[in-house]
Design brief:
Blueprint lengths: L1 H22 L15 E10 L2 E11 L4 E8 L10 E9 L11 E8 L2 E8 L5 E8 L11 E9 L3
Antiparallel strand pairs: 1-2, 2-3, 3-6, 4-5, 4-7, 7-8
């Protein structure tokens, strides 16, 4: 009796786990999936030699005044799912005058799906973002191997 119940519980748990894996998307498609809060402000494509390689996604949380951004590889990217050098850098309009905490943030490293999130305070300020993904999956990607996109003066409202 106890063994039969154990097998049923084990089978039920396996069934639930399988259904969660089967229905989970390949990568997060919303702010919370990347560790951001708020609403989408915009998305900008980073183009490489094979076409669209990644996107810079920017979110703004009006309740806190914080911006959050990530660089997300496109599923069509030949290096999607492989660790490549990626980076994202963001600062607000007070950065040039005042290099203090909360007005710039950066993230870089070897990532399979996305770099970030990075956050800066942005209420009543413009935002500058630079994001990039490498054209190879080796650990020694040089700067000229990167596909780079600069997004200047966004979210200025």
């Amino acid at each position: 009796m106890i063994r039969k119940r154990f097998v049923r519980v084990l089978f039920g748990a396996a069934l639930v786990a399988t259904s969660l894996v089967a229905t989970s998307p390949a990568g997060p498609a919303y702010a919370g999936g990347y560790g951001c809060t708020g609403s989408s402000v915009g998305s900008w494509t980073i183009y490489g030699s094979e076409g669209a390689a990644a996107d810079i996604d920017l979110y703004y949380d009006s309740s806190t005044g914080w911006n959050c951004a990530v660089v997300v590889k496109r599923t069509s990217n030949v290096f999607y799912g492989l660790a490549t050098n990626m980076y994202i850098y963001m600062h607000n309009s007070s950065y040039d005058d005042n290099h203090i905490k909360n007005n710039w943030s950066e993230d870089s490293g070897m990532y399979k799906y996305y770099a970030g999130p990075v956050r800066v305070y942005g209420k009543d300020m413009c935002i500058w973002i630079e994001g990039a993904t490498a054209e190879n999956n080796g650990p020694n990607s040089e700067y000229w191997d990167f596909d780079v996109r600069d997004v200047n003066r966004v979210a200025c409202d």
